[in-house]
Amino acid sequence: MRFLKAIAIALPMGLVSAFALADDHSPASLDDVVKMLKAQQEEIEALKAELAETKAEEESAGGFSNINTPQSPDSVGAQRSRWSPIGGKTLGSGSDWAERTSLGGYGELHYNNLNGEDGAGNLERTDFHRLVLFIGHEFNDWVRFASEIEIEHSHICADCNGDVVLELAWLEMDINSNHHFRAGQDILPIGLLNLTHEPTTFYGVERNHVEAEVIPSTWTEAGAGFWGSIAPGLNYNLFVHTALVTDTTNMRVRSARQKVANANDQDLAILGRLLYNAIPGLEVAFTFDYQADYTGTADNIDASAWLTEAHIDYQHSSGFAMRALYARWDFGSDNGFDPGGLDADKVEGWYVEPSYKTALTGFIPGEIGVFFRYSEWDERGTGGPMADHEMINVGANWWPTENVVFKIDGQWEKASANTRGTQDGFNLGLGFQF
Questions:
Q1: CA 217 to centroid of chain Cα atoms
Q2: Which of 29, 50, 71 is the last residue of a domain?
Q3: Residue 73: pLDDT above 70?
Q4: Residues 267, 387: one domain?
Q5: What is the DSSP letter of 336?
Q6: Rounded to 5 degrees, what angle do the CA atoms 375, 247, 341 make?
Q7: Model confidence at 281: pLDDT above 70
Q8: Does 379 reside within a domain?
Q9: 154/254 same-domain check
Q10: Cα distances (Å, whole numbers) of residue 57 to 189, 224, 355
Q11: Dihedrals φ, ψ of 382, to 5°?
Q12: ∠ Cα 106 409 308 (to 5°)
């Protein structure tokens, strides 16, 4: 829009200036007109370059959100957000309310056919796992709002796991083109799936266990802080947010999320992240999260914890891609409580995932991708011991069009203790986003 305005202003000015070159009432020569139009074209090209540079700076900045642009799982280091957090699609800039408001969403349907060890954990299930709708609004050119509401497992009833979740609702203000302030409820920028978990953006029907159990995705907190760009391709996040409240008899990280739902007795936590994506196709990130009191403030335990996470996400123009991630919690002890007694003073996990994607030819439209994933992670089942898990996943995604995907994968799992039934089998899924 700004570029069109620049042309609308520059072109008439150029014509007027060309005629002004003539002496009094004599017309300008053709050479004069050509020279002036050439000068105006150079100015227009300069404006285009300036706008492109500004857009590149905005898209390179790291964010604190999971509202994402349509992308396939190999679009590594590209825009992660539908609004400004890491660039991508922006809200309308017109004065009309509708032009400044955007709608979107995504959903996924799963079928799991898994056999557990000795029959424990057998699963044959069809589940519309989630439908997510989001809305954002731009109040002006430097203050905006975004929200996301998730419906899980189709409906809520006494005998089902359905839920309605407010996943994020935040306000954001631009300090300048490189630095921004955000406050509200949001998803923490840790790992790969926390920020980018639309079904079209990753391989496999289910989200990987390392990020689901250890980080744990999807992790929402209330907080405030800053994000932006330190230098081209080097981005940061720095936030203060509400913390976990961990059950000291279980120490399962995933169960410690309060989801900002009448969350009681939470202490504060501090998150910092550095992300590098200056090389096309590459994203490298390091994140830490410090929990001042991971058991909450209602007890007599005042123990801190550290989460460290690092990942690399690379895609080559040939279609080959590689993801690798490592995450680790270190839990402290206090006042007679020692998580080491539950084998939970250190909880960690990692995975590596090579993949290859190519366009289809002939009568089948779209693209197909195949992947292999090897994972190891610590997981505690309800009432069970902490167990070391290993899993191999092999499968394929088919994108008939960019924002629609069909998936299949097989899984083979082993564990040192049968906390929930180690599961082998296959999964089918479909997903979409808009």
A1: 10
A2: 50
A3: no
A4: yes
A5: T
A6: 75
A7: yes
A8: yes
A9: yes
A10: 19, 22, 29
A11: -60, 115
A12: 70
What are the phi and psi torsion angles at 93 (to 5°)?
-105, 5
Q: Domain holding 394: CATH number?
A: 2.40.160.10
Structural domain includes residue 55: no
Q: 67-70, long-range: CB within 8 Å, 24+ apart, which pairs?
A: 67/104, 67/134, 67/136, 67/146, 67/148, 67/168, 68/195, 68/196, 68/198, 68/201, 68/433, 70/198, 70/200, 70/402, 70/403, 70/433, 70/434
Q: Are 427 and 409 in contact (CB under 8 A)?
A: yes
Identify which has the larger pLDDT, 416 or 127.
127
Strand pairing category for 367-380 and 346-359? antiparallel
309 shares its domain with 372: yes
Distance CA 75, CA 96 (A): 33
Instruction: Tell me 212's DSSP state.
Output: I
Residue that wins the pLDDT comparison between 271 and 58: 271
Contact criterion met (CB below 8 Å) for 296 and 267: yes
Structure tokens at 322: 């590689």
- Residue 253 and residue 314 in one domain: yes
Per-residue confidence band for 416, with pLDDT thresholds at 50, 70 and 90: confident
**Model's pTM, two decimal places?**
0.79
Asked whether the beta carbons of 49 and 332 are under 8 A apart, the reply is no
Same domain (yes/no): 277, 415? yes
Q: 77-91, 205-219, 304-318 — which is least confidently predicted?
A: 77-91
State the angle between helix axes of 30-60 and 2-20 in degrees (0 to 180), rounded to the nearest 10: 160
User: E strands of 254-366, at which residues?
Assistant: 268-276, 282-291, 305-315, 320-331, 346-359
Looking at the 3D structure of the chain, how many domains does it have? 2
Over the stretch 151-189, which tens digit does the pLDDT of each residue have? Answer: 999 988 877 889 999 999 999 999 999 999 999 999 999
Q: Are 89 and 416 in contact (CB under 8 A)?
A: no
Q: 396: domain range?
A: 61-433
DSSP 1: -
Q: Please check whether residues 65 and 104 belong to one and the same domain.
A: yes
Same domain, 227 and 97: yes
Based on the fold, state whether residues 209 and 301 are members of the same structural domain.
Answer: yes
Q: What is the mean pLDDT of residues 283-299?
A: 96
Task: Render pLDDT for 30-39 as a digit per residue (tens, 0 to 9).
Answer: 566 556 666 6
Share of the chain above pLDDT 90, in %: 66
